[in-house]
């Protein structure tokens, strides 16, 4: 099978790590001839994947929309096109069997404040086009499927379910990295890995943390795209929507940068795992997720306790996990603070539970790749009328 993965852009943090794991797993499968990944240079994807280690992967940077060129050489010889991130661009027919992963319906369930209706409608129309005109649609949770049915109708029931929030590759201890981290950041600390999109709920997290009675003992590390902008000092307000709101909140509630809160921005991939492993706890206050939370899965795989939004997709995701999680209502800062206090009061219990659950059985990325390949074969048959 010859696979073209097309994704002009995606979430730089979690999305990039997800695509890295999936593309390399697809390339490991014996019946895959090649995986050609075509995306923008802005993604920095060549820095994530070694084509020497994965010779069946070909990474192509292209700023042009190859879909607009009939018989484009990147498309013409492939058997199936996989659109990893259909959120944003308009649908254009590849004239090939096309499979998409629709990651979430957050833009429709949690419309960012002050977003004009015309903007939301444009997103809705683009999404509807992708869902109706793609050969097959994949979702990463039953929750996402249910939201697609709610927004676009019962035809979305036919979407294939393939989970993504699964255990990461094994983390290998690196004492030198751990020593470096201990010199850079005050231990112990809570950590939240996420970009600053409004649904990631940094506002309620910061408000809750400001009310935490032991915040002088436990700092809060924020890693992820644009979190470094929370260091901005007025009148140098960042232009990015919602960041000035968070900056003003930090000032208003008396949180101090690099004492209480450490906004680190994007960190190198090799630092994410040790930062999570060495954390006092990982907190996940998001209002919405697609297939669950990759950082939560990473934390539990490394024995780090988790505080988590009590939302349907996270209940679905963590149903297969044995570790006890400190749940809270993400729309209530007071309930979030209560969860922090409870975890601190009963830390030994939560830590022991997380450690005992480290080896919970889970699927591998190779398992996920096999599921995708089955969908690709089905798409090819559906489109061409014969199997590869």
TrEMBL record:
Residues 12-168 form the Glycosyltransferase subfamily 4-like N-terminal domain. SUPFAM superfamilies: UDP-Glycosyltransferase/glycogen phosphorylase. Gene3D superfamilies: Glycogen Phosphorylase B. InterPro entries: Glyco_trans_1, Glyco_trans_4-like_N. The keyword Transferase applies. Pfam families: Glyco_transf_4, Glycos_transf_1. Coiled coil: none annotated. Residues 188-351 form the Glycosyl transferase family domain. One of its GO terms (molecular function) is glycosyltransferase activity. It comes from the Bacteria. Keywords: Transferase. This is Glycosyl transferase family 1. It comes from Paenibacillus tyrfis.
